[in-house]
User: Fold this.
Amino acid sequence: MYEGLPAELAAAIRRGYAQRDRHRMEPTIDFFRQLLARYPEHAVVRYELAGAYDTAGQEERACELYEEALDQGLSGEPLRRCLCQYASTLRWLGELEASRKVLDRAHSAFPDSEGVKVFSALTHLESNKPDAAVGELLEVITAHAEATDLGRWNDGLANLGRWLRAGRPED
Assistant:
């Protein structure tokens, strides 16, 4: 999950999450603020601090830190998670066009990510694009037929999802 980070830093991040209390985020924010002071060159720490602010309901501060982490050069799995969280926060704040731009970047970088597709579906839904939302969710669900009881409907539902996402084209 934290490839390329010093082992000590990766362990510290895991400790920060192990101690997190979603109902009392100030200690987690303080923990990641102190960690960022020790490791300012690691964008992943800035991203984790953004997530702590986000969980605490301080979305505007979280957005600033997400942007800084992205500018600092996040990559790999932390980049995927950051893009999803940032887009979700923008959606929550009603900034639907900005959320869509972040999700378009996420789709380009991680085209097979179910997480990206789910967050994208939520933004489509908030943007009054229910067909696109349902289409993306059907894509995620039908990609995992083995985990569902869809059986023989799976292919038809997958085709329906593609058709909805394409805007109901008239063949």
User: Anything to note?
Assistant: Residues 1-74 form a domain with the Serine Threonine Protein Phosphatase 5, Tetratricopeptide repeat fold (CATH 1.25.40.10). The chain has two domains: 1-74, 99-171. The two ends are 43 Å apart (CA to CA).
